[in-house]
Structure prediction request, 164 residues.
Amino acid sequence: MSVGIEKIAGVESAKVELNTGTAKILLRSGNQVRYDQILEVVRNNAFTPEEAKVEALGEVVVSGAALQLKLRGTNQIYALVADPHARDLMDEIKKFAGKVILIEGAIPPPKDKKVPTVIRVKSFKPAPQA
Amino acid sequence: MRPHAWTVLVGLLLATASARAEFRRVDLTIFGMD
Prediction:
């Protein structure tokens, strides 16, 4: 399966650890990989994707009371929700509206084979300068 | 007409900046078989 994931343009490396049941994927800077591409390869190899821990660079978009992360390269938009242990994060993230931040969080397991569009945020920091 | 070098440079920088919104790392749990 790691070979299949590494064939996705923009994937730097993929390491599948069957004993821990994880696929660890590193992506190149400037990649345009969509999350659903990864899910597709996993399913094509007869595995069921569950939760994913992710690091993502994206632009903070404020939509009413909701916060979103926009990955401009691929036009993916994820709703941001606070991790139960980090509820104050949302107010902090809102201050970065229109700016790019690096988020560490989790994408919940897909339901009914739909691609999840939520990231549960554990921490974030302003995007490192290029 | 050939573009000036700085025009090309600014274009490249803008393209790089707009692309800097992406997944960096995905650790996906794959327990369970279909």
